[in-house]
């Protein structure tokens, strides 16, 4: 006791300084003295996200982008299923894993044998939006934030579904948001601003994509009739001559798959699982149910002359959960996405001609996994914190993971630019000769 007292007496000034420094600096001083046991007494500074330790830096002038060298794929994939979780980086994956079953839980992406890191910056921003990132995946080119299927000079870029259509593949697009949202739109439209949904929906209906499933009925109905179209066009009525229109999930089960015409499923006015419209929820399919339908339908096309299929499915609302800083919302949407990834993975295990890719366009929310108390790492609680803004978060510039399984997966490893995803998909399929469209 006497010893401790004299120790404290000798170091009273240092300890006082440590306490006044607080937090990390105080901890470091106490640790250097071997008295880290006093740590729990150090006051932790209070603050908001706006007060966090932040550094605004100007980056060096950019170097030109060089495309990653591809490994030639000789064993080509017949089919590609691309699964994009909007706003998902490693902390979203890890948070879902922890919340589902703890640290040793394994979710669908954990089973993939190949994984890589994707850099997400756009043509004009370090932090991308969903439109430019989706365009990078769908065309292999960087563009400005907000643009779909156009380059930075508004020149039209041929997209993946257009290219493979010429080579005899059939395409499907699935989304849990309105189907006119940026990620699906990048595969079936060309427009300078993602908010021009009147044009986007019209272009998507004119595209060669044979199956489109998601929400967004209001984007096909004029404002006068309660919809969201400002151009007065009743597109929903118009497409009844060109498309089979589905509005309830039970129609996915009763669908006659000998129908090889265009299908659009609009299962909600805007997004699926809209909290403000619970009455509609029983009519809405999950991602897995939509993917199952698209796979069945694509197989019918393959049996009727198509060389193979491409399906893009977007888990749209992982991003919205990040913007809303809502971990329970994130968990629900990650679960919906995870189940769809599991279905695609199982399909590829049974059909070794199918390449499955699961990735994301960017991270949203600055999600962190922290100890619930910064001074007690071993406490049983874990803190999930969003670090981009209180109430409404933003995208961040951190890289995202890519997971791949099946023929051509060898090109989805190491560090990739988001544009490399396009070239790796193109390398995976057989586009040697132009055999022409197998549909319409
Ligand atoms: Zn996004």
Q: Looking at the structure, what is the overall shape?
A: globular
Overall strand count: 14
- Distinct bound molecules: zinc ion
In terms of DSSP E residues, the strand content is 15-25%
Mind telling me the C-alpha Rg? 25 Å
Give the biggest beta sheet. Answer: 10 strands, mixed
The helix content is 25-40%
Instruction: Order the strands across the largest sheet as they lie in space.
Output: 5-6-4-3-7-1-8-13-2-14
The whole-number mean of residue pLDDT values reads 93
Word description of this protein:
The N and C termini lie far apart (89 Å). The relative contact order is 0.19. The strands form three sheets. This protein has a ten-stranded mixed sheet, with helices on both faces. It is built from 14 helices and 14 strands. The longest helix is centred in the last third of the chain and has 24 residues, at 327-350. It is an alpha/beta fold and 440 residues long. The chain has helices spanning 2-10, 12-21, 23-32, 90-101, 130-139, 160-166, 182-185, 197-206, 235-238, 250-254, 287-303, 317-323, 327-350, 418-428, and strands spanning 79-85, 114-119, 169-178, 211-215, 243-246, 262-266, 308-315, 354-359, 363-364, 367-371, 382-386, 395-396, 400-405, 414-417. α2 (12-21) packs antiparallel against α3, α4 packs across α13 and α5 runs parallel beside α14 (418-428). The site of zinc ion has 6 residues, from loops.
Notable traits:
two-stranded antiparallel sheet; 32% helix; alpha/beta; binds zinc ion; 10-stranded mixed sheet; 440 residues
């Amino acid at each position: 006791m006497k010893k401790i007292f004299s120790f404290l007496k000798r170091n009273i000034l240092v300890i006082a300084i440590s306490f006044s420094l607080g937090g990390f600096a105080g901890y470091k001083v106490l640790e250097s003295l071997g008295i880290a046991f006093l740590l729990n007494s150090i006051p932790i500074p209070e603050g908001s996200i706006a007060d966090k330790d932040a550094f605004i830096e100007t980056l060096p002038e950019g170097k030109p982008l060089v495309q990653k060298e591809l490994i030639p794929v000789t064993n080509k994939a017949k089919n590609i299923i691309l699964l994009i979780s909007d706003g998902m980086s490693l902390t979203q994956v890890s948070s879902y894993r922890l919340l589902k079953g703890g640290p040793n839980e394994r979710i669908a992406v954990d089973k993939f044998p190949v994984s890589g890191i994707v850099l997400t910056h756009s043509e004009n921003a370090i932090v991308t939006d969903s439109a430019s990132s989706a365009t990078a995946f769908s065309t292999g080119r960087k563009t400005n934030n907000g643009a779909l299927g156009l380059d930075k000079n508004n020149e039209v870029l041929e997209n993946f579904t257009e290219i493979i259509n010429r080579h005899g593949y059939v395409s499907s697009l699935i989304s849990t948001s309105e189907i006119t949202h940026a990620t699906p739109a990048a595969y079936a439209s060309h427009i300078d601003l993602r908010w021009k949904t009147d044009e986007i929906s019209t272009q998507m209906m004119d595209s060669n994509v044979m199956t489109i499933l998601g929400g967004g009925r209001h984007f096909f109905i004029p404002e006068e009739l309660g919809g969201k179209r400002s151009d007065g066009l009743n597109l929903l009525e118009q497409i009844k001559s060109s498309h089979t229109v589905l509005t309830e999930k039970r129609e996915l089960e009763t669908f006659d798959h000998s129908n090889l015409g265009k299908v659009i499923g609009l299962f909600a006015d805007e997004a699926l699982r809209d909290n403000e419209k619970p009455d509609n929820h029983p009519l809405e399919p999950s991602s897995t149910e939509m993917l199952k339908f698209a796979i069945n339908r694509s197989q019918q096309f393959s049996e009727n002359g198509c060389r193979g299929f491409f399906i893009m499915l977007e888990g749209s609302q992982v991003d919205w959960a990040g913007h809303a800083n809502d971990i329970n919302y994130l968990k629900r949407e990650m679960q919906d996405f995870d189940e769809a990834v599991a279905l695609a993975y199982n399909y590829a295990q049974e059909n070794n001609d199918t390449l499955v890719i699961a990735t994301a366009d960017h991270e949203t929310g600055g999600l962190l996994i922290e100890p619930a108390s910064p001074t007690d790492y071993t406490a049983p609680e874990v803190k999930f914190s969003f670090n981009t803004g209180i109430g409404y978060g933003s995208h961040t510039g951190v890289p995202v993971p890519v997971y791949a399984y099946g023929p051509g997966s060898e090109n989805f490893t190491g560090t990739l630019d988001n544009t490399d995803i396009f070239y790796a998909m193109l390398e995976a399929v057989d586009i040697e000769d132009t055999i022409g469209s197998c549909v319409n």
